[in-house]
Amino acid sequence: MKFPYGISDFKKIIEQNLFYVDRTDRIPLLEEAGYQLLFLRPRRFGKSLLLNMLSNYYDVANADEFETLFGHLAIGKNPTEKHNQYLVMTWDFSKVDARGTIEEIQGRLYDHVNNSIKASAEKYQLDVVINRGNAVSSFDDFLRASCAKNHKLYLFIDEYDNFANEVMASKVHNNDRYADLVYGEGILKSLFKNVKAAAAGNGLDRVFITGVSPVIMADISSGYNVATNIYRYPRFNDLCGFNEAEIKQALHQVANECQQNGELVDIEAAMKTMRQFYNGYCFNQHDLTSVYNPTLALYFLKSLQEEYRYPDDLLDHNLGMDRDRINYIAQLPNGPALIQRICDDSQQVIVPKLHDRFGVKDMLEQEQEEEALASLLYYLGVLTQDKVVALGKLQLRIPNLVIRSLYVEKLRKLLLPDVQLSDFSQAKEQFFITGDLQPLCEFIQERLNIFSNRDYRWVNEFAIKTAFMMLLFDDRLYIVDSEPELKRQYADFTLIARPDMRKYEMLDHLMEFKFVKLSDVNLSGKEVQHLSEKALQELPQVQAAFTAAFAQLETYQPILFDRYGEDILRLQTTAVVAVEFERLVWWKEKWQN
């Protein structure tokens, strides 16, 4: 079995017998859904492969290959009447360079569309006039030529918002180029107006559009207001992405191949790792079944199959654009506050509904409510649907640990902009290996003033937990969780060694944080600063905080042993007490095996 990592060519996957998860059973449902469809998913979620599969299915030129390509798949056993009945054309806007002036962008967009038209005209032997200065004219002429031969067109538009998003994000506070794309008679709006007109009985029968968010579609408004939005239909929740059973089956196949080569794979441990790092996406509130990111899943499976080990970095660098999306949100009004809120697992991000009609101008120029910003993060794939709560509102969450790592990274840059990883790496590693938290406590204590002038909700243990989480988060070594549910109880922070990293000398960590106010100890900040370490620990209020912390840790510890295995964990429990933002003191219970 070979994994088609990075391959979106359906014909190549089938002809070379590469790993393929069959979604052709949805073709009849797609036909029933409408003639012009809009399907949104985060980047690298398999949208291009979906379009390529549909293109091969409907292409009249592929009629002789239908049995080869689809005979063994679900649709091959019961095809629809429309298979191999269309001329097909694909515009892939991810290929359009977003750099330069609006004139340069227009030239590249027209070149891409014209090249697609020319290739299709040659493929179907149509006499079409290509107008290099006006791709809309070229498209009209293609439709004229196809109608003359009694053919209808199925148009696929992949990543419809890609280059427009790049223009939008390139300069958050100067979006003139974006306005020239989508407002008034902007290039993109004009192009979609022509697509809309062509679908009104002028030779264009069906359109399937993919993208990341509805923002661009909202901005071109009347230019293209005829698409049926299917991205939140329950029946299409896993149209792109893998489910749990499919991942488990693939892991079993990989394990069998590895065993034949003398290598053993712990399927249960691999499954648990994939679930925590790659699962968790849900695109429909009526069926909250989660799906795996397909690109990340293939990345992991390919490494396990070829190298007999997990990838060194569980975040595929090809998904680094997710980092850019969080950075973009952080530059919007109220963006930093939302990122901080998302990282606080003791709070929930709840919206009355997901927005799907909001434009960029409002996002950039107005202080958006949490609902709009959270909706955009949902479409970008860095928040997902969790559950429906009171009054039908929707609770959102971070999908998995890969995405959580990006939030933590951004939060660290927001709150500690001058701190580099090398500044605290030695202190962090000392804690990982020996359990000695003192160097990291001293490092954080010097920087506690970053919280002292923040709003009221930071005046608690969340501020302290956030500081440690930002610096200790390391998904290269650990399964990192903040507020993990332990049988309806919540620990503040856990670091559980990844199964593939247990060969190294490192501890597992369970941590609890407590916050004591200056008014509780009846001392000033300066007085607390001048206390010795011993005197600070002996304050009755600090002692009480430690007692409460270890009482909680004692209840969490057996649950973790039960979850991960008492014979596997090398668990150290650590309590940290902050006396407001003046001093930190910590205590640990030594790991014993």
Automatic annotation (TrEMBL):
Domain AAA-ATPase-like span(s) in chain numbering: 4-220
Annotated TM spans: none
Pfam families linked to this entry: AAA-ATPase_like
InterPro entries linked: AAA-ATPase-like_dom, P-loop_NTPase
Protein name stated in the entry: AAA-ATPase-like domain-containing protein
Organism: Thioflexithrix psekupsensis
